[in-house]
Amino acid sequence: MRAFFVALALAGFALVGPAAAQTPVVTVSEPWVRATVAQQQATGAFMRLSASQNARLVAASSPVAGLTEIHEMTVVNDVMRMRAIAGLDLPAAQAVELRPGGYHVMLMQLRQPLNAGERVAITLVFEDANRQRFSQTIEAPVRPLGAAAAGAHGHGGHGQGAHGAHGQGHGAHAAPGGHGHGHAPAAPAAPQRP
Predict the structure, then answer these.
(1) Where are the annotated segments for Disordered (predicted)?
(2) pLDDT tens-digit profile of 150-174?
């Protein structure tokens, strides 16, 4: 009887062992967070995600934010609209960009202003093909509001956020009609590995 339980335990380990070894590896490169001004309650975090196997970004958190969501921006009738999404698919071996004007991690209910040069810890929660969750914490540098990327374009003017004419930031976040977005910074950050 004892041999039966040992065999059962080994069989269980054999089933769990390979599954655990197959947890996807998600590489996070060039993460950054847009700087804020006093009283601004929200900002975006941007990065490139590459998964070794199919995975999904399903949540995020940060000590600087009371609420963190994954967002998507789209243009509908020439108006930029932003909405929270349940998750973002990360196809195996394909880079997925989180950038201004597209997908991003939204940091809301900020507990403090975020100044250029600071670093922000962000925990990203992923889900593999078997719906098993795993997380990874990164540190993203805060980049100045006015830094612009070559070839980047602003989206200010559609439902202006907290920075009005500058088209920077996400503003109050309550308006369903969209939020202003500014220019994306140019200089890539060094890739971060957990």
Answers:
(1) 147-194
(2) 334 333 333 333 333 233 344 333 3
